[in-house]
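[step 3/7] inverse_fold.run input=structure_tokens len=305
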């Protein structure tokens, strides 16, 4: 079945737009612009369009406008994909996930503006947006029939690779949540050094903020070495299956970049551009890991048949 070119355009715009929402949300958090529009939502400081423009107002209001515009493309993509490629096994599930979690993340953002939320609840905001992004990205890949180009129906994934793919993807969400918790508890610079909290002494964290910061570093180190191990396994055992082979090489590249920007965020005292790249790399990594999960699920179906 031939896919309408406009559907492909919509899917690309939805994916790029969802990426902008994620980075825009990170920018709001990192610049403390969450209350740029005051305790008002959906209006901004009592006006549909803000009259007084400050940097905080511009960042927060722009984020709301982008979210509204991108929501339209995601809704169109979900409905159109459902009708056009609904026969593909994952399409309807991904369409529901994309819209549902987009709405949930918007409601959490609105609730934070209107009433405020605890740090542990706010930390879920980025993770929920990531699920919507991953669903939109996978829908886009289905629209472009990437699975057919990679001949994914011929892929044979062993039990060991299936276990590590599912495990590291679930664990990545823990790492993402812990990173968001670092930001929302203002623990980003509680430790002045890297890799230890204080490199001149080896001591356990002395307060909650240090535990949050160092807990995230340990979690990030574990996923780095876990993906390194999976990549080595893929290089040794999956040379003939290019989507697995190159997929895990790209995954390790992304986690290495994510770890590097995490280190630089501390050493540069939260340079804004470094911090945004840090969010970008973990977003792309999570999207790729979710695609690997899709391959694993298809392989299981094919294996059972």
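[step 3/7] decode complete -> sequence:
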């Amino acid at each position: 079945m031939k896919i309408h070119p406009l559907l492909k355009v919509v899917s690309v715009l939805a994916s790029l737009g969802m990426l902008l929402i994620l980075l825009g949300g990170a920018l709001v958090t990192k610049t403390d612009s969450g209350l740029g529009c005051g305790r008002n939502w959906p209006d901004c400081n009592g006006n549909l369009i803000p009259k007084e423009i400050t940097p905080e107002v511009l960042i927060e209001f722009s984020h709301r406008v982008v979210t509204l515009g991108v929501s339209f493309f995601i809704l169109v993509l979900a409905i159109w994909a459902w009708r056009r490629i609904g026969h593909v096994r994952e399409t309807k599930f991904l369409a529901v996930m994309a819209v549902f979690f987009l709405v949930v993340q918007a409601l959490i953002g609105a609730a934070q503006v209107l009433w405020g939320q605890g740090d542990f609840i706010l930390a879920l905001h980025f993770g929920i947006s990531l699920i919507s992004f991953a669903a939109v990205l996978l829908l886009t890949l289905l629209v472009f029939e990437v699975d057919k180009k990679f001949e994914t129906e011929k892929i044979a994934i062993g039990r060991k690779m299936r276990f590590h793919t599912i495990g590291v993807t679930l664990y990545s969400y823990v790492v993402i949540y812990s990173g968001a918790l670092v930001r929302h508890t203002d623990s980003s610079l509680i430790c002045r050094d890297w890799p230890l909290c204080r490199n001149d002494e080896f001591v356990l964290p002395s307060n909650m903020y240090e535990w949050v910061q160092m807990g995230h570093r340990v979690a990030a180190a574990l996923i780095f070495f876990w993906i390194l191990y999976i990549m080595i396994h893929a290089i040794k055992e999956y040379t003939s299956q290019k989507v697995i082979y190159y997929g895990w090489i790209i995954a390790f590249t992304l986690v290495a970049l994510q770890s590097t920007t995490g280190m630089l965020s501390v050493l540069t005292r939260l340079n804004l551009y470094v911090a945004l790249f840090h969010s970008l790399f973990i977003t792309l990594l999570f999207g790729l890991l979710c695609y690997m999960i899709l391959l694993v699920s298809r392989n299981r179906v094919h294996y059972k048949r």
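[step 4/7] annotate
Residues 268 and 274 are 8 Å apart (CA to CA).
The mean pLDDT is 90.
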